[in-house]
Each structure stands twice: as C-alpha cells, then as structure tokens.
Amino acid sequence: MENTSFNFTRITKEKDLDVLMEEIGDARVVMLGEASHGTSEYYTWRTAISKRLIHDKGFNFVAVEGDWPECYAVNRLVKGYQNAENKIADVLQVYKRWPSWMWANWEVAALVEWLRDHNHMKNVQEKAGFYGLDVYSLWESLDQIVNYLERTDGQVAEAARTAINCFEPFNRDPQVYAQATAFVPTDCEKEVIEMLKRVQSHRIYSDDPENEFNTRQNAIVAVNAEKYYRAMVRGGGSSWNVRDSHMMETLERLLEFHGPESRAIVWEHNTHIGDARYTDMADDGMFNIGQLARERFGRDQVKLIGFGSYQGTVIAGKSWGAPMQKMDVPPAVEGSWEDMLHRISTDDKIILSKDLRDVPELQQRIGHRAIGVVYDPKFEAYGNYVPTLIPERYDAFIYFDETDAVHPLRMKSRGATEPDLYPWNY
C-alpha cells in the first residue's frame, strides 16, 4: 500500500469541482454521500456541488435523508409559498426529533438561503425544491393529513382519524407499537392502507401547487412507516430494505411530479448512496437507494459520489437519543480506504472511480469508514468500517484529510427510540 498511486484532483475552491461536473455530464440523478451525519465539510461541499448542478445544469430539487413533513416546510420557504415561514432559523426549528442536528444546522441554513435567493425571481415551475426521503414520520404525517383534510373533506379526514386512533394505544411510540404487533396478531396496516386509498382518490385544491402531492406523500409515508416499524422487530435487513425502498419510491415520485426532463440531487449517508452490491451489505440480502437507482435508471444516468475523511471532529451521540456531543474522530485505521488516501497525500482531493480500476489493492473489499448518529471513538475499529469494493461502489469520491464538526442550531430534541431495535444508525 505504501507504493499505491493514482490520479486525483486537489480540491481547495469551487472551481476545482469542474472535473466532477464533467464526470456527472448529463446524468439525471446525482447522489452525494457523507461518512457521518455530523461533519461540516460534507455539508458545505455538497452545497457547493448542488449549487453548480442547479445553476449550471438545471437540476430541479435536493432530496435528503430527512422526514417528509419537516423538509416540506423548508420547501415551502425556499419557494416562497403563501403563509410559509419566512425566517430560515425559524423554519429549521421544525427538526425537533433526535438527531435534530442533521438538518437543523448552520450549514443547511446556508443551503436554504441560497435556494431561496435562487428561486426569488423565477416562476413556480423553475423553482428548485427541497424534500425529505425518509420514512420515520408516522405520526407527523398522520397529523398533517388530518389537519389539512379537516378543512377540505371531512369524510376523507375520518379515514385518517381512524388510522390515528388505531395507533393511540401505543402512546405515539413506534417501538411500543412494533413490539406489540410482534406478539399479537393485530396491527394498523389495514387502517393506514384504507386511508391511503381515500386520500389518493380525493382531489385537493389549494394555492400551493404541491399540496396534493404533499398530502398523498404523507399518506404513503404513514403506510410505509407502519410497515417499517413492524419489520424492525423481525431483525435482519428487512427494515433497512423497507426504508431504502421507500426512499427510492419517493425519489421516483418526485421525478415524475417534476416532469420527464427533471433531474434530482440526493443527500444521504454513504451507506445509502454507495451501491450496496459492492459491500458486505449484499451478503445479508440488503440493498440501498444507490443500488436501486442504478438498476432503475442505468449507471450512465446515476452518479454516486462518496465523501470521507482521515481524522477530525464530529457531532454525534453516545447512544440513541443521548445529548449531542462534539467528539474527536481518530486517524483512520491502518489499511482502510481513508488510511490509503492519507498515505498518498494529505491533500483534500476528488478521485474518479475510472482512475481506480487498475489499482491492484482496490480490486478487493477494503475497510471504508462509516460513522452514524451514534458513535464512540473508543470502539471505532470494531464497527465503523464497511468492507467495500471502492471503484464500483461510487463513481467518484471526495476526501478531506481533516474535518470539523457540523454547527448545530441549539435546541432540545424529542426522544426517538425507533432504532434501538436494529443495529444501523445511518
């Protein structure tokens, strides 16, 4: 590994992204990863890339690893819809559930500000959007459906209230619901599916041109969230696959909604956007949105860009729901992908996968760092490295030798117990 070498482009300024823009070409979907959910450089450079894609190549929206209802509030702000929140710091307060720092941070605020300014003088069809792909927001989505439909259609609202009433005995706690349905052959699947059917058959009129899509998406989230929470108690990779299937389906619906020529930017953890077929996830029957997108649209239409670093600091929690902390990230373990990049040079750099396919050391799986929202540096070497065939998992990789923690907005998070039932926290 000492003699390993390959071409790369040093990255110090936005102009250095030109090589990446050329690699992206005319792709319809660009997925931008991260090796943690709490590193400032990942957010900052994903913003720089997204600005280029939107401004130079006409991409239509950014879709992130966040919940639909909260991200739709941001979407309303950046598009200037009537009665939308108009202060960025205020709208980001909607991210209250742990880990709130993922989207309630100053780096995201900078992206939101740019999107709002970019959209200001454009017509509705030309405005770039901001959406959430994730599946966790069961109760928030149900509440939004009821609140809206009570003003427009009492009969359809009744179907939503029936679904909510089914969940009420579980005190809005997904873990309690999941565990209860594991042992008792009763659940709320029928109620949420009936609600979805009623919502899908209902015509919604509003001065928000996306309100119909928003309401139906909330109903789909409720259906898939219910399925997800039941899958958690079965263990294995089933809940992961439910979640990434939902994110892929949401991405497809957004592309369809925005038209046949629409183009999407996705922000998610490397474990979601890096093709799972080239990691040990595939050994357990797991897939992810990066793999599904390549299969759906073709590799020439999907560009997967991973991010990583050698050392630095990160925001994370010591356990699920624990207070956020700024933690030290130690130097990458010897023999890992990040260690290799550090040994080649300490430059921050862009690496294209086409320049890696003749590197002997990379024609096999090697460890590749992955830090989740739960993290303890003392145990990093025992569970934070994903065996990866690097040249195939990504189309490009952006490496930083030393990174800093993201800058959260100060707020308390609602407790979140969902992922206690499974080992992944990405």
TrEMBL record:
Pfam families: Erythro_esteras. CDD domains: Ere-like. This is Erythromycin esterase homolog.
